[in-house]
Write a structure and sequence with these properties.
Structural class: alpha+beta
Number of domains: 3
CATH topology of the largest domain: CBS-domain
Distance between the termini: 38 Å
Radius of gyration: 26 Å
Largest sheet: 7 strands, mixed
CATH superfamily of the largest domain: CBS-domain
């Protein structure tokens, strides 16, 4: 099909379209398709497609009317006209198709059999309007966790799509979101109602949900954590960076925080509780208690192997802290720092004790945000060591920790509102 002539497929399955790149007529990529917007009609008539939700940098979701779409083909969507950068907000009687329809339980009218929606297809009518005419459904399997047969039926052959569902699945929806980064998935959750947020949160594994919570604004993550069962909430907190877990527990209230700490593994709870004892905007309140800590007799090869671990954040991977035993925080006395550039220049068998940078002055946990910022800037560091009065390493404050505290509270929402105001 020649998309340069504005060709459009007659039938488009929307779950498959999610993540497809969106281009302007000049071939410049504008963003990606994240969902479609439709309006339900009376008498079980097929819903009318109003347009697409497009994600444009930086993680902003806007609405593109379907009338602006000139081409839909495998791998791309082409639109025309100027973008309205106002953040998408659903109106009354509008539904976000993938977020609300996928995984719903509906009934086949002829057999009264319960089936699950796996995908929906929009088709173009003779008038040029788009309607959801087809629904791909899966029948219930006979055995435990077995999938049943799947088929594509007409919209008129099902009922119950507009009936509120208490426990809606999320497996097909998550399939459209699987490749999103944690920050992007957090933006998706922001636009969903709390019921759907909780359903998705419960389907994510602990590590993935922890990453997403770290990217959410304060109000949203407190709201979501409150909906999780105690044991699950504690498991997720254990997977979060200790400083982020401490920040979140400060926000949920003292009684709730103590209950969750009691459910956490003692070692994890101890580190988080220690951080909660510091003032929020102090070095102690901002630091992570899990920097890379090694001894002086560790080799360069061993240090690089630690840095290569995928779970190490970029800010912490920029340097290793060399201490006397024990090397779990609070450690023995801090001896110095070895930067990754030095590690890359030295022979693999070189011992860290011989290449220490001992000129970096560590900070006390009481140091202010201004003092931490000045230290990072003065020494061109991505992380600064925090020590107690006996020079034992307590943790490290990274650049991203400082930025989180320099920006205003709920800065994600503030930035979004600011861009919307500027675009109007």
């Amino acid at each position: 099909m020649n998309t340069s002539k504005g060709a459009i497929l007659n039938r488009v399955f929307l779950a498959r379209l999610a993540g497809t790149a969106v281009f302007d007529p000049n071939g410049d990529q504008l963003g990606k398709v994240r969902d479609a917007v439709a309006t339900l009609r009376t008498n079980n008539q097929p819903p009318r497609i109003l347009g697409f939700i497009i994600e444009v940098p930086p993680r902003k979701r806007i609405f593109i009317p379907i009338t602006r779409v000139t081409s839909i083909d495998n791998g791309h969507v082409i639109i025309t006209g100027l973008l309205n950068m106002r953040r998408f907000e659903p109106r009354t009687n509008e539904i976000t198709v993938l977020s609300e329809m996928l995984d719903r339980s509906v009934t086949l009218i002829e057999t009264e059999e319960k089936v699950t929606v796996e995908d929906v297809a929009m088709e173009i009518s003779k008038t040029g309007d788009w309607f959801i005419e087809r629904v791909h459904v899966m029948k219930r399997g006979s055995g435990f966790r077995k999938r049943g047969a799947s088929s594509t039926v007409a919209w008129s052959e099902i009922s119950g799509i507009n009936i509120p569902e208490t426990h809606q699945g999320v497996s097909n929806l998550l399939g459209t979101l699987a490749n999103l980064r944690a920050a992007d998935l957090a933006a998706v959750l922001h636009d969903l109602n709390i019921k759907r947020k909780v359903e998705i949160a419960r389907a994510l594994n602990d590590e993935r949900l922890a990453d997403v919570l770290e990217e959410m604004d304060e109000a949203s993550r407190v709201e979501l954590l409150a909906e999780l069962e105690g044991e699950r909430a504690a498991d997720v907190l254990e997977e979060m960076d200790p400083d982020d877990a401490a920040d979140l527990l400060r926000e949920v209230g003292k009684e709730k925080a103590q209950a969750l700490l009691a459910l956490m593994e003692p070692e994890d709870a101890e580190g988080v509780q220690r951080l909660m004892g510091y003032e929020d905007y102090s070095a102690g309140g901002m630091m992570t208690t899990e920097p890379i800590v090694l001894t002086a007799d560790t080799t360069v090869a061993e240090a690089l192997a630690r840095i290569r671990l995928s779970e190490v954040a970029p800010g912490l991977a920029s340097q290793v802290f060399v201490c006397r035993q024990p090397i779990e925080t609070p450690t023995g006395r801090l001896l110095g720092v070895v930067h990754i550039q030095r590690l890359l220049r030295e022979p693999p068998a070189t011992l860290l004790g011989g290449i220490l940078d001992s000129d970096i002055a560590p900070l006390a946990p009481e140091a202010t945000l201004s003092e931490v910022s000045s230290c990072l800037a003065s020494y061109n560091l991505l992380a600064v060591p925090i020590v107690d009065s006996n020079e034992r390493l307590l943790g490290a404050v990274t650049v991203d920790d400082v930025l989180d505290h320099l920006l205003p509270e709920n800065w994600r929402k503030v930035e979004s509102l600011k861009r919307e105001s500027e675009s109007n």
